[in-house]
Design a protein that fits this description.
The structure holds 2 protein chains of 2 kinds.
Chain A (H helix, E strand, L loop, with lengths): L3 E4 L2 E4 L5 E7 L5 E7 L5 E8 L2 E5 L6 E7 L2 E6 L8 E8 L8 E2 L3 E5 L1
Parallel strand pairs in A: 2-11
Antiparallel strand pairs in A: 1-3, 3-8, 4-5, 4-9, 5-6, 7-8, 9-10, 9-11
Chain B lengths: L3 E4 L2 E5 L4 E7 L6 E7 L5 E8 L4 E4 L2 E6 L4 E6 L8 E7 L2 E2 L3 E6 L1
Parallel strand pairs in B: 2-11
Antiparallel strand pairs in B: 1-3, 3-8, 4-5, 4-9, 6-7, 7-8, 9-10, 9-11
Classes of the chains: A mainly beta, B mainly beta.
Chain lengths: 113, 106
């Protein structure tokens, strides 16, 4: 069983479209994260939810909106996609907010054309 | 604000060598430090987690140390193998270093 799973794995879409990426974890964790890895492979935190509450909201365009329907799911919706949104997006989960061991999904490679 | 730096950015060694990867951080008030491995086109695999109260952790040929006073952690890989080739990242909570890309040549 995959611990943290993201769908889709690949996403190619045109500029201006709206798309969603889904993430689910079966580890029983209460904290989930979205990261963006750019073309230089640098990983940057975007959002974090703890028990469905937003606790980290870094400086990202408000076209990005996370939604956590329950502790096991954290989805990322992106409106009006731009070329610069092309990147790999990673979901992760951990137990608690004090930096316990984090587990990552396999990533979603988003390409905006 | 926490900053995490990894040096070198890239490293190439012959098979069998022991090697050390470095990670430095600016804020010593940490909970723990985690080392990851990332293979090309793949997700991150957790290698070792060192709690702030610990000095080191070992897993197989890997040994990670933590010195909060100097703001440093090292990942020691013994008897490197071509299969160790990957990018190694350290992270403090949600802040990641830039990674060290390791190539082990047969």
């Amino acid at each position: 069983d995959t611990a943290v799973s993201q769908t889709p794995k690949y996403l190619v879409t045109q500029m201006g479209n709206d798309k969603s990426i889904k993430c689910e974890q079966n580890l029983g964790h209460d904290t989930m994260y979205w990261y963006k890895q750019d073309s230089k492979k640098f990983l940057k935190i975007m959002f974090s939810y703890n028990n469905k509450e937003l606790i980290i909201n870094e400086t990202v365009p408000n076209r990005f909106s996370p939604k956590s329907p329950d502790k096991a799911h954290l989805n990322l919706h992106i409106n009006s996609l731009e070329l610069g949104d092309s990147a790999v997006y990673f979901c992760a989960s951990s137990q608690g907010v004090t930096g316990t061991e984090a587990f990552f999904g396999q990533g979603t490679r988003l390409t905006v054309v | 604000k926490q900053e995490v730096t990894q040096i070198p950015a890239a490293l190439s060694v012959p098979e069998g060598e022991n090697l050390v990867l470095n990670c430095s951080f600016t804020d010593s008030a940490i909970y723990n430090l985690q080392w990851f491995r990332q293979d090309p086109g793949k997700g991150l695999t957790s290698l070792l987690l060192i709690q702030s109260s610990q000095r080191e952790q070992t897993s197989g040929r890997l040994n990670a140390s933590l010195d909060k006073s100097s703001g440093r952690s090292t990942l020691y890989i013994a008897a490197s193998q071509p299969g160790d080739s990957a990018t190694y990242l350290c992270a403090l909570k949600v802040i990641f270093g830039q990674g060290t890309t390791l190539q082990v040549k047969p």
